[in-house]
Amino acid sequence: MREKVLFAFVFHILFFSYKGMDCQKGKKCYFCIVQIKRLENMDYRGRLVSIVILSLVAVVPLHAEETHKVLVSTAESVNQKKNHTEEVDSISWKYPGNVGLNANQAYFNDYCTDGVGSAASVDAYVRLNANYKKDKVMWNNGFSAQYGFIYSDQFSGGDDVRKNMDNFALQSKLGYKAAANLYYSALGSLESQFSKGYSYEKKDVNNLDSAILVSNFFAPAYLKLALGVDYVPNQYLSFFVSPVTARFTFCTDTLLSDNYGMERNSKGEYKKVRSEVGAFAKLVSDFDLLSNVHIFSSLEGFYAYNAAVQQYNENLIDDGVYFDGIDAYLQEHPQMGLYGDDVHGWYVKWKLELTLKVTKYVNVSLRTQLKYDNAETKANKNVEKENRQKTADAWKLGYPVAKTQFWEAVSLGVAYKF
Asked: Could you list the residue range(s) of the whole structural domain that residue 262 is in?
């Protein structure tokens, strides 16, 4: 009540002293009563603005009625903005996302020395999110998928159209606020692809591209369950660290098990699931660099405490045994096993997307991914068949070897963001 009386007194002094008016001392002043009633419906900012405007009365010659109108409209405007802000902040669920279609094309006629043939590619993507935040609870859920094709008249082997992009990912992260910008969090994620993927490096007897299966639906697939802490200083950055993460690798197609370090059981059959426990970290940045330039970056890594990735016996490689000659060598050396000790699995993956908005719906994008996973291997299918020389290079001997994986795509596309 003291605060209301103080504000009313300031109203009284400023207004009546300027107009040469005098209120009835010792009696109730009607103006003061009206201002007190209005102050009851104002927040602190509304009251402060009202006093500032009345102070200007001493400089700007307004009539009492005009001053009263300005006061009321200004205070109501301040309160409306506050109510709108509170209404937006009170929304617990938000559903941001975007969908888009990208394409690029190239053509060289028969007389060009800079290139040959023609090629075109197209891919579609979708990103959907459902995010909840209220009080100390934060729960972020996301689904993303991408699928694309590439055409070239230079492809041989009968496949002019090939799949060049295929992935989907689900993620859910639940956090409870522990301190400023810090959350105790639980994370779950699943990653795989929709359909079969092929490599076309090997040439057949007719020197045509030979399709080699390298992936399939849930071959591989990765499931992670993690407990840790999440540092979220603002809406553009998140750094999640987990000392306890369970990672499950699925490979439902046994033809591909060797490519992903899957272990064999006592019967010599490939297991379809590999379980690992280790440490995991993920840094995500998502922001507008400029009004028309957007950057998304995701860097993550995992290291397993237990050794569960199967590898071939290094003694075979040291002895220079070619991969296609292992069976004959083992018959001559039965004391030597095919596989050595399991190793600790680990990987690092960095995904970067740079989007330049041309119009509201048209953009140019650069997308890249850099990845190394010591369990994801690929064999050299172009090993020399004749004049073989002894070497300890596993790749030259034809063994499946983990390599650094990289891809990039620059494209023109249309996108809708909501």
From this structure: 94-417
